[in-house]
Amino acid sequence: MIKAPEGAGTITGAAWDFEATNDFSNMEMLMKSEDGTCAAVESFHIFHTPGTYFPTIKVSSSRTGSLDDIFVQMKNLDRVRVIVEENE
């Protein structure tokens, strides 16, 4: 669940970087609350090699509520640890 800080406007976008490529160009489809201050996103990714990964999500919000206003986006990052073990 994504929640905008009070006074930060509405959620305008979210993008994952699953394998530390620093590429956040693929925007995810958001399922937003009625007022736009909360959102959920569903993603699917396959890690092909065992190891520990730290997928990162970049979320944007704007007081105007428009992703087109590129200079007024408030951006934030969060990570999660994923451990992939080899199947036997």
Task: Please supply descriptive tags for the structure shown above.
88 residues, mainly beta, 3-stranded antiparallel β-sheet, 39% strand
Account of the 3D structure:
The chain has 88 residues and is mainly beta. The protein has one domain. 0% of the residues lie in helices and 39% in strands. The chain has no helices and eight strands. The strands form three sheets. The protein has a three-stranded antiparallel β-sheet with strand order 1-4-3, with no helix packed on it. Strands 2-6-7 form a three-stranded antiparallel β-sheet, with no helix packed on it. A two-stranded antiparallel ribbon has the order 5-8. The chain starts with a strand and ends with a strand. The mean pLDDT is 91.
What is the secondary structure topology, with strand pairs?
Elements: E1 2-3, E2 10-17, E3 31-32, E4 38-40, E5 51-53, E6 56-62, E7 74-79, E8 82-84
Antiparallel strand pairs: 1-4, 2-6, 3-4, 5-8, 6-7
Distance between the termini: 34 Å
Integer count of domains: 1
Order of helices and strands: EEEEEEEE
Let me know the largest β-sheet.
3 strands, antiparallel
Total number of strands = 8
Structural class by sheet pairing and helices? mainly beta
Task: Summarize, please.
The chain has 88 residues and is an all-beta fold. The protein has strands at residues 2-3, 10-17, 31-32, 38-40, 51-53, 56-62, 74-79, 82-84. It starts with a strand and ends with a strand.
